[in-house]
Design brief:
- With 167 residues, the protein is an alpha+beta fold.
- It has a domain of 100 residues: Alpha-D-Glucose-1,6-Bisphosphate, Chain A, domain 4 (2-Layer Sandwich).
- Helix content is 40%, strand content 33%.
- Strands 1, 2, 3, 4, 5, 6 and 7 form a 7-stranded antiparallel beta sheet that branches. Strands 8-9 form a two-stranded antiparallel ribbon.
- Strand 1 and strand 2 form a beta hairpin.
- It is globular and about 60 Å long.
């Protein structure tokens, strides 16, 4: 019997803040904040060491090309590019950051991109890593949305005229 008397108030104290509506928000904010912020990356995951990564449903060549455009747009200078087997490594820099980008060919149509942005020796810049991936994704979408032009044989004299998708 004494066990129930102690347990019931503890349960009520534990559950009460969750049932308090808006008054419980300040107390619950430390618990909810990581959940709310984790969705801000739009499908971008992070390793324990704050390396951002995302898998794209595009061939490695297209992801690389989109990444080059993204780096150029962001004013980031590519220092070197190393191709090994079906993977590509890129090092890029700004005046304050050193950026390592890895492209891993998962399949012929799927590529995993990892971005590690370092500031000084030990600090990581997760926001810049996220933006590099987001901008790369935007260029991939723009390229995919561009209409394909096929040359259609004209009806007179054998000339060819471009038309969207052969129509």
């Amino acid at each position: 019997m004494p066990r129930k008397r102690i347990l019931l108030p503890l349960v009520v104290l534990a559950v009460f803040p969750a049932l308090g509506g808006c008054t419980a928000l300040p107390g619950m904010l430390p618990l909810a904040l990581p959940v709310l912020v984790s969705g801000a990356g739009g499908g971008i995951a992070y390793t324990v060491t704050n390396v951002a990564y995302k898998t794209f449903s595009y061939p490695i060549e297209k992801v690389e090309a989109a990444n080059r455009k993204a780096l150029r747009k962001m004013g980031i200078v590519e220092v070197w590019r190393k191709v090994e087997d079906s993977n590509v490594e890129v090092k890029a820099e700004t005046s304050k950051l050193t950026i390592y980008i890895d492209f891993e060919k998962i399949t012929a149509a799927t590529t995993k991109m990892k971005v590690n942005v370092k500031r000084a020796l030990i600090f990581k810049d997760k926001a810049t890593a996220t933006e590099i991936i987001v901008q790369t994704g935007r260029f991939l979408e723009q390229d995919a949305a561009a209409p394909a032009l096929l040359f259609v044989k004209g009806s007179g004299g054998g000339d060819e005229t471009p038309g969207p998708l052969g129509l």
